[in-house]
UniProtKB/TrEMBL annotation:
Residues 271-356 form the Baseplate hub protein gp44/GpP-like C-terminal domain. This is Uncharacterized protein. Gene3D superfamilies: Baseplate protein-like domain - beta roll fold, Baseplate protein-like domains, Baseplate protein-like domains - 2 layer sandwich fold. Transmembrane segments: none annotated. Residues 26-105 form the Baseplate hub protein gp44-like N-terminal domain.
Amino acid sequence: MTSDDLTLRVSTPTRNGNGYTLSNARNLGGWQDVRFTRGVERCPSDFQTSMTDVYPMADPPDMQVQPGDFCEVFLGGDRVSTGWVDQFIPGFNDGSHTVTLTGRSKCQDLVDCAAVYDGFQLSNASVLYIAQTLAAPFGIRAALAPGTDQGAPVEQVVILAGETAYDVLERVCRYRGLLLYDTTSGDLEISSVGKATAASGFQEGVNVERAVAMYSMNQKFSDYYAIYQGLDQFSDIGGAPNQIAHLVDPSVQRYRPRVVLSENVMGGSVIAEDRAKWELSRRQGRSFLVRLTTDSWRDAAGALYAPNTLAPLVLPSLKLGTPQSPVMWLIAEATYKRGRNGTTCELVLMPPQAFYQQPFIWAQFGPDQTVQ
């Protein structure tokens, strides 16, 4: 493998009960166009590769790829994804023929498939236990990132018939302010925000080819009402069956109400308030983000830019940081590309508070600006 070339290590799976065994491993390289994307809110990670020869260079040669093959994706010597080939797409035109492969990590089965659990209900279980229980049937491990506080056990989780495992876990993680994404081994990681910091960041005029900031209002609301559908209306603690939490975003200067349903059926007004906080924080964060393109996949220490990593930003044209005082934002998504336009990494960065439960207000414009 040469530096940062993409190589696919492909194996043939054979079903064994609800598991599988792998055989016939082979390496496929020589890809001309590469795209691979990971993100803290993008599960599973996915890739697409293509070339204009009949088949990629193989060891042994003449080895074909089948949809459903097990696949490990390497960028240089770093494994970045473990999963399955989704599509094998051959094609041709007057001057050439192409081969395209697409695939996703093992966590695709959590996203695509129904959650199956006897009784369809878990009670007084930790977030990690719930994740391990729902992921195990697919041969996927779940783990907490080092230093992550998963909070108190969840009182009750009801799995709806046909609901996917990822839908259940995403809902649980929302209440605990946790991120849920796949790892390079294709397994599931539960983490709090910003558990790592890049060795270098992004500076205008140094390693940023282009950057765009987005300041938006269309997805923000002035008043957030979270409705809790309780089941303890006959308890002795009082309170109505439907309890409402109300939060106000003072940055929205006209009346724009939004009502969100707190899906949890136990926990009272505290759960409803947490749901409203999450909704406000998420919309605030998404109203203020940066998309940039850099000419390398790696930071100064040689590590691939990875989601849930803090990186310093110095983009004075966008009023974000100075060389003396950079701003630390979170890499929310990273897309590695190589093709006719060379090697680039496209990143989406947001304030880390965008992923917290607590409400926050971001000043969208510098104090020296006047907007009429």
